[in-house]
Design brief:
- This protein is of the alpha/beta class.
- The chain is built from 21 helices and 16 strands.
- The strands form four sheets. It has a six-stranded parallel beta sheet with strand order 3-2-1-4-5-6.
- It starts with a strand and ends in a 6-residue tail after the last strand.
Length: 581
């Protein structure tokens, strides 16, 4: 089976958050052939290079999201009119007040009014058709006409109240953001040698990363699988929904666009795989069909924690450990106040905070936490001539005391998570692999991950956090029972093997329900009967008889010279048709 894996800021780039699970997935499915379509987020990310790729990756094609050059295409009068109509329809769907959507009203059927979701969908694919016919949309989306179209949509009857208040700077900001989000429409990936040759498109996230998969389905009928370990729409709300620097009109219009796009992705996808029940509930609220949803937990490498997990008694029984990236969402301030209460009950307790600061904001937050720790816990000395020691330490992995991540979890008997915002708590799973008892705040997918094998308290409640930590510090037998149960649960649900097995089954299920969309043409250009047998989904040249393979509905210009793709080594171009059957 040929899989078109679409990523945004992830695999195969070295600096990526979603890269590891994609790499483990590709390596675990050696029986399939993968083509990687990667959208990069910055020049720095591209300059850092790629991770080593396994042999089942036949090709990598990259495109930047952080920049785009105007194609140099000059639209004729008809193309300009066509763009104005399509883009105007898209903006009208974005600016429309949801309460006025015919799909949500009590209007009788057959009134002839399409819902705003259909309006958005039709306009999106019409823009994709225009980009394919004219060679791109970047120049048009940056034009003065695009700004005026947005202004007309904001001032139209039935528009959002906040949209009607948009000023010129707001219109310019939204236009620039929409151009950036719609850049995948102008890529040259949509031909018989590109995404049209895939049996299945797998988008590693929703939002912009899923756009190429939507267009592969639109142009060639290729089914789309979308995996979201963190819901992109939720991430947008968290990042921009409370941004005081952004005008209300900008926030409202961008939220409407991303909401419409998320709903379209969920509607068109053959299957959506959330990483946990928390993400699944978000997807259902955003319009995902419950029958399409399959929860697949992230697959993690348990082998590097095996030695620690098999020796739980080696931990310091009086030490609490926190592991992660230091940032305000982790709420280390509440943890420090909770530890002050713990010290009143257990004077010999220690707290080790392990992890780097996350950017400039994290550095400032780390400095604040260090100052708070020094204030709450003055250095203590055993005697008049001894050096004082603070019971709270701030450390990073890689030093002589904590050379590896497993050593960080092994340093204490109880692992603490104090976050106020979490998606899927990877650090919690790592602690479970190590057989450690845990105390966590009830955020994100924490309860689902723990499943009764650890203690859970409300967020922003230092007293409850302290009481749970004291209870475990005083009861070694309970710690041992919870740690063993946690490790057994993690090995059952959160390993690479279960993740790979789940996706292998989903791949086969989707392809079995979708017809083969490629036709084999003979020398005269006519379809060759039985030219694509059932085993065409199996990697190999089963249908290679010298005939030409095209996707149904493919354009005539696709038979021209193949597009040059990014090489796997980055030193020489690789023909786009290389490896095609």
């Amino acid at each position: 089976m040929r899989i078109g894996l679409i990523t945004e800021g992830g695999y195969p780039f070295l600096s990526s958050d979603a890269g590891p699970w994609c790499d483990r997935l590709v390596r675990g499915l050696g029986q399939h052939e993968f083509e990687i379509y990667a959208l990069s987020r910055s020049r720095h990310q591209e300059d850092e290079g790629w991770v080593p790729l396994p042999p089942q990756v036949s090709r990598v094609r990259t495109a930047p999201l952080w920049t785009a050059e105007v194609e140099g295409v000059v639209y004729g009068r008809r193309a300009r009119r066509r763009f104005a109509e399509c883009y105007g329809e898209l903006l009208a769907a974005i600016c429309a007040d949801p309460s006025a959507d015919p799909a949500r009203s009590a209007q009788p059927s057959g009134t002839g009014h399409a819902s705003q979701a259909d309006r958005f969908s039709n306009a999106l694919y019409a823009l994709a058709d225009l980009a394919r016919d004219e060679g791109g949309l970047v120049g048009a989306l940056r034009s003065e006409g695009a700004v005026r179209a947005l202004e007309r949509a904001c001032r139209a009857p039935g528009a959002l109240r906040t949209a009607r208040e948009a000023r010129v700077p707001d219109l310019l900001t939204v236009t620039a953001q929409l151009e950036s989000a719609l850049r995948p429409l102008s890529l040259d990936w949509y031909d018989d040698a590109g995404l049209g040759s895939a049996d299945l498109c797998h988008a590693a996230s929703g939002g912009t990363a899923a756009l190429p998969g939507l267009l592969a389905g639109h142009f060639f009928g290729v089914p789309l699988l979308v995996t979201e370990y963190g819901v992109r729409l939720r991430s947008h709300y968290l990042a921009h929904g409370t941004d005081a620097a952004a005008a209300p009109a900008v926030r409202a219009l961008l939220a409407a666009f991303h909401g419409r796009l998320a709903a379209e992705v969920y509607r068109r996808a053959a299957c959506v795989t959330p990483g946990n029940a928390h993400a699944r509930r978000w997807q259902e609220r955003c319009g995902a069909d419950r029958e399409k949803l399959r929860t697949v937990y992230p697959g993690m490498d348990a082998s590097r924690f095996a030695e620690v997990g098999e020796a739980p008694d080696a931990a310091d029984p009086d030490t609490l450990v926190w592991v992660g990236r230091v940032e305000p969402a982790k709420d280390l301030v509440s943890l420090l106040h909770a530890f002050a209460e713990v010290r009143k009950e257990e004077p010999g307790a220690r707290l080790r905070i392990v992890g780097p600061a996350a950017g400039a904001e994290g550095e400032a937050y780390l400095g604040h936490c260090r100052a708070l720790a020094a204030q709450l816990f003055p250095d203590e000395a055993d005697g008049l001539h001894a050096v004082g020691d603070n019971p709270v330490s701030f450390e990073e992995i890689g030093g002589p005391e904590l050379p590896t991540l497993a050593d960080a979890y092994a340093a204490g008997a109880v692992v603490v998570l104090s976050s106020v915002v979490e998606g899927f708590p990877i650090g919690l799973v790592e602690a479970m692999f190590c057989g450690r008892a845990t105390v966590s705040t009830d955020v994100g997918a924490v309860v689902e991950v723990i499943g009764g094998t650890g203690l859970v308290v409300p967020p922003r409640n230092p007293r409850a956090l302290a009481e749970a930590c004291v209870a475990l510090l005083r009861d070694p037998e309970r710690r041992a029972r919870l740690g063993a149960a946690a490790r057994a649960r993690a090995l059952e649900l959160f390993t690479v093997e279960q993740n790979v097995t789940a996706f292998h089954g989903i791949y086969l299920e989707i392809v079995s329900r979708c017809p083969v969309t490629r036709e084999v043409l003979d020398d005269t250009g006519e379809p060759l009967p039985f030219g694509v047998p059932a085993e065409a989904h199996v990697p190999g040249n089963w249908a290679d008889s010298g005939a030409r393979v095209v996707a149904r509905g493919g354009p005539g210009w696709a038979a021209a010279e193949p597009v040059q793709a990014t090489s796997r080594t980055g030193t020489a171009p690789v023909p786009a048709a290389e490896g095609a059957r």
